[in-house]
Amino acid sequence: MTRPDFRDQISVPRTSGRQRVRSRDWPRQPRRDPHIRVTAQLLELAGPAASIVEASFRPWASATFLGARHRVTIRFTGSDHCHKAEAFASILAEAEFSISGHIVADACVDTWRTSDPLSTEGHSDSDSHCGGREGETLLHLSILTVEDW
Fold first, then answer.
1. Residue 130 and residue 57: Cα distance in Å, rounded?
2. Which of 1, 75, 109, 146 is 20 to 30 A from residue 25's alpha carbon, by CA?
3. Is 68 exposed, middle or buried (0-12, 13-18, 19+ CB in 10 A)?
4. pLDDT (tens digit, 9 = 90+) per residue, 106-115?
């Protein structure tokens, strides 16, 4: 049996100019950013006398985990601002956060700053100026969140 010298032409789209994408080439879908939910739950935990002065985050990764480092500054005001800040700082490490898709792995107070408007020194690291006078206490917090698989 002999082979024919020509074959019927079949129309096939050219793919030489396109890059082939395989499912294994796609990165894992990113999770929703938990930063807004972290700050909202911190405000709930702190109470009505607290406000967020500054908040930022940056991505973080280790060999086995993906997540973010959050930096938050909370201001406590009122006549008992030191006591409210102390109460908040004491429960922060053991607080339970409910953030879908993420776990709060660590939450701590980095620095503590108390100011008294009647003091000539301005700022102090102790609550000796907190004797029932108006003022404010700033807490600088660090929170580490990791993605929950």
1. 31
2. 146
3. buried
4. 999 999 998 8
For the entire predicted model, the pTM comes to 0.68
* Amino acid at residue number 43: L
Q: Give the HSE-up count for residue 21: Cα atoms under 13 Å, Cβ half-sphere.
A: 3
How would you classify residue 132: left for phi > 0, otherwise alpha for psi between -120 and 50, otherwise beta?
Answer: left
End-to-end CA distance of the chain: 62
Structure tokens at 130: 């907190």
Question: What radius of gyration, in Å, describes the C-alpha atoms of the chain?
Answer: 28
The C-alpha atoms of residue 116 and residue 130 are separated, in whole angstroms, by: 7
Contacts of 103 (CB under 8 A, 6+ apart): 145, 146, 147, 148
